[in-house]
Design brief:
By secondary structure, this protein is mainly α. It contains 17 helices and two strands. The chain has a two-stranded antiparallel ribbon with strand order 1-2.
């Protein structure tokens, strides 16, 4: 056996090792696309097709559910077939469901049909996440895992710009040229489906065939993981933190893009789909990315405990920008984009505390650390799902300005839960 064909510590790759550059970037680019389709693009599409804000927020918030319950079926991915098989099959299903959305947009009962496809897309995307992260661990040795962790994050961020920014710019351009919004979104979703099917075909060939020798021990051991998680010291305070730290942002995230699109008579900024793609899908994502990077650098130098309160203020105070926008109703796209950049930068910086807290809470879980982190991500999804379900009703009842003021009031919840958590001052701090 040559050195280039040695198996990794966790798995064996038949036919020699393929360079991780051939599949890690594309795998995590593919991971981001369907998530953005169901979490962001669906809401904007329904808005352009005439649905009310309360309906949009309720329907699309339910799409978080597969990520909420993802830990419950993760053993199935371990117990049956290979991670590669799950990745390829789920990518095929995602491509088909995006095409299904495209083909049913002009149907008489398009909401029911498209939501059914978005549900399948969400379930497939959550399953793809499980398989992709597992494949990353068994397909790379420890040195490669460390080397490519930044690469996978970068390409996931690139997928956010492509899936949110470029998709909306394409849809907006087609809306203008075709003067037929359902047809424009049919073409948009059709093009995204073709792109994703191309990714599926590429991965069917490019992904190395990893033989995973580790299988789940069964649901008895699986249930013991949950028992251990819910008996950890401080677990209920941790759960409260995970559910409420992002409560204001969960309300804001569902309504902000609808506010950008809504007409002036409804109190919105009346931006075109293309302008939303530029302001929120591109400039906003850049702000989110820079904020996250700087948050990670700051926490690595001073530790989570030292940076917790600056991050609390970063994730809460910039929400005031939407109160100002709803009062002033500016029309200058540069001003609007700059405001969104600041709010998303603050969110990216402040969200670092949330991610680090989940790592901190799971650090002493031993062999169950990965499983406990997966449970935390379920609570993370639930923290966005529940507030999002009522956000549309609150906005319809209060109007945009009062709703955004309510978001600012809810920031007190973020402050409250930050006060009750206890964090070791040494966690996350760079060792001297």
């Amino acid at each position: 056996m040559t050195e280039n064909s040695k198996p990794s510590p966790k798995g064996e790759i038949r036919g020699g090792l393929r360079s991780p550059w051939a599949w890690v970037p594309s795998l995590y680019f593919a991971e981001g696309i369907p998530y953005l389709m169901v979490m962001t693009i669906a809401a904007i599409m329904y808005k352009r097709l005439g649905l009310n804000n309360d309906e949009i927020a309720l329907y699309t918030s339910w799409l978080y559910l597969p990520w909420v319950i993802k830990p419950l079926w993760s053993p199935i991915v371990d117990m049956f077939k290979s991670k590669r098989w799950w990745i390829v099959v789920m990518e095929f299903v995602v491509g088909v469901t995006i095409a299904g959305v495209a083909l049913t947009i002009r149907a008489p009962q398009f909401v029911q049909y498209t939501m059914a496809f978005f549900w399948l897309m969400a379930f497939s995307s959550a399953t793809h996440d499980i398989a992709a992260d597992g494949f990353y661990m068994i397909g790379l040795n420890s040195n490669q895992q460390s080397l490519f962790v930044g690469i996978r994050s970068t390409f996931y961020r690139i997928s956010m710009i492509a899936g949110q920014g470029l998709t909306l710019i394409l849809a907006g351009t087609l809306e203008k040229n075709l003067a037929d919004e359902p047809l424009a979104w049919t073409y948009t979703m059709g093009i995204v489906a073709v792109v994703f099917i191309a990714i599926f075909l590429y991965h069917a060939v490019a992904l190395p065939r990893v033989e995973d020798r580790q299988r789940a021990a069964g649901y008895g051991a699986f249930l013991s993981v949950f028992k251990e998680f819910f008996t950890k010291p401080g677990v209920w305070i941790a759960i409260v933190f995970m559910l409420l730290y992002r409560f204001p942002e969960a309300l804001l995230t569902k309504i902000a893009p609808l506010f950008l699109i809504d007409g002036a008579d409804a109190g919105g900024l009346q931006l075109s789909t293309e302008a939303v793609g530029i302001a929120q899908g591109t400039v906003g994502v850049v702000g989110l990315t820079i904020g996250g990077i700087l948050g990670g650098i700051a926490a690595s130098r001073g530790g989570l405990k030292q940076w917790l309160w600056p991050m609390v203020w970063a994730i809460t105070l910039p929400d005031l920008i939407y109160v100002v926008l709803s009062i002033m109703l500016p029309q200058n796209i540069i001003l609007i984009s700059s405001a969104i950049f600041i709010e998303q930068f603050g969110y990216g910086f402040g969200f670092t505390a949330y991610m680090l807290f989940m790592l901190y809470f799971c650090q002493d879980s031993g062999k169950n650390q990965t499983s406990h982190y997966a449970i935390c991500t379920g609570f993370m999804a639930l923290s966005m799902m529940l507030p999002g379900m009522v956000a549309g009703y609150l906005q319809q009842w209060l109007g945009y300005t009062a709703f955004f003021i309510l978001v600012m009031v809810c920031c007190l919840l973020t402050v409250a839960v930050a006060r009750i958590v206890k964090i070791d001052p040494s966690f996350g701090k760079k060792e001297n």
